[in-house]
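Q: Can someone sanity-check these two? First one:
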Amino acid sequence: MPKTLFQNVIFTLMMSFLMVYVMICYNICLNVGGMSNEVFLMAFGELKIMWPVAFVLEFVFVDKLAHMLAFRIVTPQDRPIFITLAISSMIVCIMCPCMSLVATILFKKAGSNVIATWCQTTFMNFPVAFFWQIFYCGPFIRLIFRKMFPEKENVAASAVTE
């Protein structure tokens, strides 16, 4: 979807913000035993650390690797929705274990159980991250992105119809 480096930076900032914020809220809920209004505010403490980590990780490493892996499953000639789903799925498959490891090291106080805690955190986070990305976060951020950066042919077509 992003066509330029600037657009890619904006898209990645938006996507990583919403994914990280929701996943932090989810993990806080797991830790405190349920959802409350305070969770939304508590999440901002971890967000200051986790959002930049997620952005750099995705922008520098994960995006390229996810595209490479996705195009082992789909081809550029496939329907765009299949390409989008393949890339999004690969990003979650890579980002979830990486971000779970960062969260385990920084916030879980795992001690000598780092590997076990990381595995548990990853397994608890993966289904939520996957479904949140595929069904809600991804479509929402792509909608906002399309509004911010309409493609030129779409702009020209809408100008003709007005």
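And here is the second, same format, sequence then tokens:
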Amino acid sequence: MSKPLISALAKFVAATAGRNMTKAAYVAVAVGVVTMTLLTVDPTHEAAHHGASALLWACLAYFVFEWLVRLRHMASQQRLELYMLSSSGLVDAIGALAVPVALVLGVESKTAWLLSVLWVLKVIPGIPGLRQLRRVLVLESGPLLSVLVIFLMVVFLASVAEYFLERDVQPQTFGSVPSALWWAVVTLTTTGYGDVVPVTPLGRIVAALVMISGLGVFGLWTGILATGFAAETRRDNFLKTWETVSKVPFFAALGPSAIADVTHMLRTMDLPARTMIIRKGAQGDCMYFIASGEVEVDLPGKKVALGEGAFFGEMALLGNNVRGANVTTVKVSRLLVLDLVDFRVLMARHPDLAETIDAEAKRRALENK
């Protein structure tokens, strides 16, 4: 392989040395894991052993090359130790070394390639929702651990109770507390395999209480996580909306409190491409901010494209509620909508907003002459 080609490949991988994976890496993970899975089926292993092995070696070569280039990239930035001790660095190292180390230690080839399942760990840093889940788990760690303590208490108390009540009747299944623990976990999680069932009246009463407790415990966990996710989503949406509103010239002169009020009152609208938002001559009662995407304003004699951060329909808030132009989405767009009623509430709360409105109304009136 020529040096220019090696250099180009190195630059390509080094450019993606961050947490996000390339499309090639996703393909390598998918191909490698699917191939490994197929090799566990005996007919497939016998029929396509050599071809499947070649695919696995190609995927492994990609991950080794990617890991080595990232090591070199981080070393050039004097961040090698930080990278090697980070979660992404450890995942890259495991993906590159797990299978070769197993083969060197003499593990059977078919068994060693099972370690390629660890390649799926490389997908984790590229999933935004998992980062949000990590934040929720950290923020809600106290309540979650409290419920975990309750779970463990119920499991242990129930196993001891069933051991006391059932050991003489069912010595094979409830002959010790560790044996009863299996029943307690299965019952509390409401799985109910049916392999271990109390037969005494008091034992069944305890079982009923454990099942009801299981519903409560998992309901608490679900509620805590759902509330945490909702709070994180509101926080992220508020920050994104704040950033969009603060960039709009119409609100540039407002203070933080006014911008916060605007952010709370905005509602989100997701629209597909080629959707008419405003029709000329219609009555207007709101204005729009473009959070993402692009719209086209059809003015007399020309068409104006507006992108992210722009706004339109503001004349409806400035006294002229008759729409003066057609506005259509060019591509998939997310709009933030501020209604006239909410705008008037803002005026009442923030007198300085009235001065901004008057100045903008005069400027727009001069532009439209």
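A (reply): Looked at the second one. The mean pLDDT is 82. The radius of gyration is 31 Å.
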